[in-house]
Design brief:
Rossmann fold, 18% strand, TIM Barrel, globular, 5-stranded parallel sheet, 748 residues, Immunoglobulin-like, binds alpha-D-glucopyranose, 32% helix, 3 domains, 6-stranded mixed sheet, single chain, alpha/beta
Length: 748
């Protein structure tokens, strides 16, 4: 009897899930049936907040507030379904509640169909546009932890604190694989490797969206971006052309998005650039055939900022805005981030009424948009939170996660003569443009878009200098130089000469997108010259790098006693760096990108054999400043006993890879264990190595642990000349740390 009732219960649950799913469709279909063309096009329109506030675009009246007339023009006349962004800087929770509450009040009470607005924001390292929110290390630093669970936790906190402000859509994570170190947005990515970007992207999306249906009020819709191959631009200048083979597209740029779709990402944002001469916003092959038909993505595709306009003005593939509108909608976008006018809205209505775009094509996008609102639980009603509803907002518990992430991110690159950790009684001279700056620690997308407006810094956080002063009584300070100008050298060098050790915090001005374009990857000349002057004092120099991307330091790095890559570690970064420098925290970060040595040797870790120098002529084959995956610990972890469960991997089977890691030191250590493979020969030129798996372990003082990986044929695959992932039989190496072993892969 019990068994029958159990079976009946399971059937009942399955039936209700089907009914619920159909009900979801029924709600959406019922709305679509009622909607006019204008209302459908309005749902496909996304406006910048400025458009509905008092004042001019980018010149709002402070404190920013809604303009009732403009708001009703947007929602009642144009039926706009989505609004994004802030008016140029962060707001406190209360102001967000007023803004979004006012918008939703009109949307749900005065429009004909009362469909709430979906509000989108860039909350890319915490809820950066919400004052007093928790700010995390930027994505590149998160990747350096090689611990995706930290990205999951960061995303959960970010979702919670973004929902606290009343927003339900986050334009994050960036899943672009960063393959040009010059690019201004390297810091926003999870680095140069597709597997790392995939694993961290999945973790972030799970953290943002949670596991409940509909999404609960502490999670939100994620947005995988920027589809596709935005990080592959040839020149390193933002939004410039990417030239790709099908092999590179599928092997390198596609996997993180494929993984994100399999994880359930609800939305995607399109790459503003072009691939092989076709702007992605106008590329039906990418936006429909690949994204929809091959990858089966059913979520909402939103354009990037002004990217329909850019088809006309920038890419010049559309002679006017109307053709640009046609091209983008025909290619497959669902929502246009216009975002500062109603041209898209008006032109798309014209195109439908002329019959060039069918109403059924509108229905495809409107269905996705309304389904998204349904999945967020905001299709029929939406509540605006009060300040008491999110008690953990900006809490110490949230801050502790940001701190833990920074601790596992900051990467020790050189430590000559055990310069670090610093000794207790040492006289420390702290200097450089990143020494006393919170904005450099956070980077762009902080309380403002570019992150350079220090008035928004939350002074309750410590700069590196303030953190050093808190941990040592023997600290002196002088900036010595700015980002690109020398300052009072005499004073700085006097203090340097009176010290035992110099902590030189060099860095990069926060920037992103076009403002962040550079024409020389070198660290600015003034900073290089200043460090050289410091080196001339003969004192040991600890070089700390606080930067968006790997700026060249070949003129100084080899002479420095120690080098630490801090990336942009967020609000807790100053304290964490100080704790690492004094040895309170044992560093465990590893580079998620290749750190180049020279301007014209910008190579990736997984380069081809023919891309290296020929050693027979006295050159080192591959000579970056620091390799992908490089990172030191104070514990000097030992790798031994690399073993395989068999000398041959047979198709359909798996190989177990084991090795031992020992911690000979007297301090606890964390270690990221990276498993690379090398395909000896293949029908497509093989990379010299390829990351195939990674895991992070903790080792107590003196502890030895066995690390285990399982390897299958698909883990060895590459994309062949037919654009398919294949694994060809033959010899392979496995390389983990300093250990290498070989095995054969056979078909039977
Ligand atoms: C920007 C960025 C994109 C961001 C969007 C909205 O241009 O390219 O990453 O999400 O605009 O701010």
């Amino acid at each position: 009897m019990r068994k029958c009732s159990l079976v009946f219960l399971v059937l009942l649950l399955q039936l209700s899930a089907i009914v619920r799913a159909q009900k979801a469709d029924a709600d959406v279909e019922a709305l679509i049936r009622q909607m006019s063309i204008e209302e459908k096009v309005g749902q496909m329109t996304q406006l910048n907040l400025d458009v509905v506030c008092e004042g001019g675009i980018y010149k709002l009246v402070e404190p920013h507030h809604l303009d009732p007339t403009k708001l009703r023009e947007a929602l009642l006349k144009y039926h706009v379904g989505s609004i994004l962004n802030c008016g140029g800087h962060a707001y406190p929770l209360k102001q967000w509640h007023e803004l979004i509450g006012g918008i939703q009040e009109v949307a749900t009470k005065e429009t004909r169909l009362k469909i709430p607005v979906i509000y989108g924001i860039d909350a890319i390292h915490g809820a950066n546009y919400v004052s007093k929110s928790t700010l995390f290390p930027q994505q590149l630093a998160q990747a350096a932890t090689f611990n995706p669970d930290l990205a999951f936790q960061a995303a959960e906190v970010t979702a919670y604190e973004t929902r606290a402000a009343g927003m339900t859509w986050n334009f994050s994570p960036v899943l672009d694989v960063a393959r040009n170190p010059l690019w201004s947005r390297v810091f926003e990515t999870f680095g140069e490797d597709a597997l790392v970007c995939s694993r961290f992207g999945e973790a972030a999306i799970r953290g943002y969206q949670g596991a409940s249906t509909p999404i609960d009020n502490t999670h939100l819709a994620a947005c995988m971006k920027h589809f596709l191959a935005y990080g592959g631009n040839r020149t390193g200048k933002d939004r410039t052309p990417t030239y790709l083979s099908e092999i590179q597209l599928r092997e390198l740029y596609l996997p993180p998005f494929k993984a994100a779709i399999e994880t359930g990402a609800l939305t995607v944002m399109i790459n503003s650039g072009e691939i092989n001469g076709v702007p992605v916003h106008a590329d039906k092959n990418i936006l429909t055939r690949l994204l929809r038909e091959e990858l089966k993505f059913e979520g909402v595709a939103v354009t990037d900022w002004e990217d329909v306009i850019k088809l006309h003005l920038n890419h010049k593939v559309a002679p006017n805005l109307k053709e640009a509108t046609f091209m983008a909608v025909d290619a497959g976008i669902d929502m246009c981030m216009v975002p500062n006018d109603y041209d898209f809205t008006k032109l798309l209505i014209e195109l439908v009424k002329e019959g060039r775009i069918s109403e059924s094509r509108l229905d495809v996008s409107v269905r996705r948009i309304l389904t998204l609102k349904k999945k967020l639980g905001i299709l029929k009603n939406v509540s605006i939170p009060n300040e008491q509803q999110y008690p953990k907002f900006g809490s110490s518990a949230h801050r502790a996660i940001a701190r833990k992430t920074a601790e596992e991110a900051i990467t020790l690159l050189e430590n000559r003569n055990q310069t670090l950790p610093l000794k207790a009684n040492q006289k420390i001279f702290v200097t450089g443009p990143a020494a006393n700056s919170l904005s450099l620690l956070n980077g762009a997308w902080t309380r403002t878009w570019q992150g350079v407006d220090t008035i928004w810094d939350d002074q309750s956080n410590n700069t590196i200098l303030e953190a050093m002063l808190a941990v040592s009584p023997n600290v002196t300070y002088a900036p010595g130089c700015g980002i690109d100008t020398l300052l009072n050298l005499t004073n700085a060098l006097n203090l340097a000469n009176q010290s035992d050790v110099i902590v030189a915090c060099m860095g990069e001005k926060p920037s992103t997108e076009k403002p962040g374009d550079i024409d020389d990857l070198s660290l600015p000349r003034a900073q290089l010259d200043y460090v050289k002057a410091l080196l001339k004092t003969g004192k040991p120099v600890v070089l700390v790098l606080v930067e968006n991307r790997p700026r060249l330091v070949n003129e100084i790095a080899d002479q420095c006693a120690a080098v630490v890559m801090a990336y942009q570690p967020g609000d807790t970064g100053g304290d964490v760096l100080a704790d690492i420098l004094i040895g309170k925290v044992n560093p465990s970060g590893k580079l998620p990108l290749t750190y180049p040595r020279y301007n014209h040797s910008l190579m990736w870790y997984d380069h081809k054999y023919t891309e290296t120098f020929d050693t027979q002529f006295g050159n080192k084959a591959f000579n970056p400043q620091w390799e992908f995956g490089h990172g030191l610990s104070y514990s000097e972890i030992r790798y031994t006993d690399l073993k395989l469960s068999a000398p041959t991997l047979i198709k359909g089977d798996s190989l177990t890879v084991t090795l031992s890691l020992s911690n000979p030191s007297d301090r606890e250590a964390k270690e990221s264990v990276l498993l690379f493979t090398r395909d000896h020969y293949a029908s497509i030129t093989p990379s010299v190595k390829k990351l195939r798996n990674f895991s992070k372990i903790t080792l107590k003082p003196g502890e030895t642990k066995t690390v285990r990986f399982s390897l299958k044929a698909e883990d060895l695959s590459f994309v062949d000349a037919n654009g398919m992932f294949v694994t060809e039989p033959g010899d392979f190496d496995i390389q983990i740390g300093p250990l290498t072993t070989t095995f054969k892969y056979v078909l039977k």
